[in-house]
Specification:
The protein has strands spanning 2-12, 15-24, 28-51, 54-79, 85-103, 106-127, 131-146, 149-156, 159-166, 169-180, 191-193, 198-201, 209-221, 226-238, 241-248, 253-260, 264-278, 282-296, 300-316, 319-326, 330-331. The protein has 333 residues and is mainly beta.
């Protein structure tokens, strides 16, 4: 069996960005940015399989793509006398794509329109020199249309971080929510044959998803030669995007498709001791890591793992060398 394959790609993607920055009185600053781009791209992939001189399988994937993208951002920053600061960021982007696809002997059009609106307000408050508080209120609205399918998502993504230094101890606690966007190429109902045995399908019902986490970090400088470090985190998400695979007997092919999962959560713990052989230059670190996760994809999967880790680091005047070792997981049921 002989396989012959040819690929061609032509791309034309000009873009233009305009930026404006102005310093205002009373430690204020204003920034603005506009960006626009145009894309005209052609992708062509052809292959065939021969047995002796007889063609047993042949297929062609071709896409003629035209796209437009535009975005605008406005940022305002105010710094106060106690080194606290206020930051406000507003952004808007728009994406439009038109694809003419050839899949084997079938030709069809696929279009996508997408817009994102984001607002972030961050306040960083320094309480004396040892205590620092950072709070963020943020919102994100996403609208996607692929053919006749429309999806609108609203996200509230706040965060808070509190850090405190007491003698040789430093503590930090952080909690946040953030959104993750699905790839534009996976949102359409397009189908692409990778080879004679595999097909990738788009999913117009694919959703963006939210991720939530809270973590705690503690560092104890025991003396100039030894440091204790520990870290703990709990994370939770819904509609996590994963790649599903199943066998289609009628087409004798494996079908790959991105889907949204159910609710997932995980815990992660770390503890390590660092030996500072040459303070700020050479140190050795050894520790333990523990993971505990529950994932709801096509079935519910539990993962429990215990790892040992070790590293040697040397750094001097911008030069840094790292040797790191991580053992395989010791599974815990």
């Amino acid at each position: 069996l002989t396989t012959q394959e040819e690929r061609q790609m032509k791309q034309f993607n000009p873009g233009l960005k305009l930026q404006y920055t102005r310093k205002l009185s009373h430690n204020q600053r204003l920034r603005a940015e506009l960006y626009g781009s145009y894309g005209n791209n052609d992708y062509d992939r052809w292959y065939e399989h021969r047995e002796d001189e007889t063609i047993v399988d042949a297929y062609r994937n071709s896409t003629d793509e035209e796209s437009y993208y535009g975005s605008g951002k406005i940022n305002y920053t105010k710094t106060f006398k106690n080194r606290s600061s206020l930051n406000i960021d507003l952004s808007q982007d728009l994406t439009h794509t038109d694809n003419l696809n050839l899949r084997g002997e079938n030709t069809y059009n696929v279009s996508l329109n997408k817009s994102n609106t984001r607002l972030n307000v961050t306040y960083n408050h320094r309480i004396k020199n040892r205590l620092n508080l950072q709070a963020r209120l943020a919102g994100h609205v996403s609208h996607v249309k692929t053919g006749d399918n429309k999806v609108t998502n609203y996200f509230f993504t706040p965060s808070i971080r509190l850090s405190y230094v007491y003698k040789n101890h430093s503590f930090e606690i952080k909690g946040a929510a953030n959104s993750r966007e699905a790839s534009n190429s996976n949102r359409t109902g397009d189908e692409y044959r990778n080879n004679e045995y595999e097909i990738t399908q788009g999913n117009p019902d694919l959703k963006d998803y939210m991720n939530y986490f809270v973590n705690l970090t503690h560092v104890w400088n025991i003396n100039k030669h030894f440091t204790w470090l520990c870290f703990a985190e709990f994370a939770f998400n819904t509609n996590y995007i994963y790649k599903n695979c199943y066998y289609d007997e009628s087409r004798n092919s494996l079908i790959w498709k991105y889907k949204n999962s159910g609710a997932n959560w995980g815990q992660h713990y770390e503890a390590a001791v660092q030996w500072n052989i040459l303070p700020k230059r050479l140190f050795i670190r050894t520790g333990l890591l523990c993971n505990y996760r529950k994932v709801n994809i096509w079935k519910t999967v539990y993962h429990h793992g215990l790892y040992a880790t070790g590293s040697i680091v040397y750094q001097y005047k911008g030069f840094r060398t790292l040797i790191n070792l991580l053992t395989g997981p010791e599974m815990i049921e």
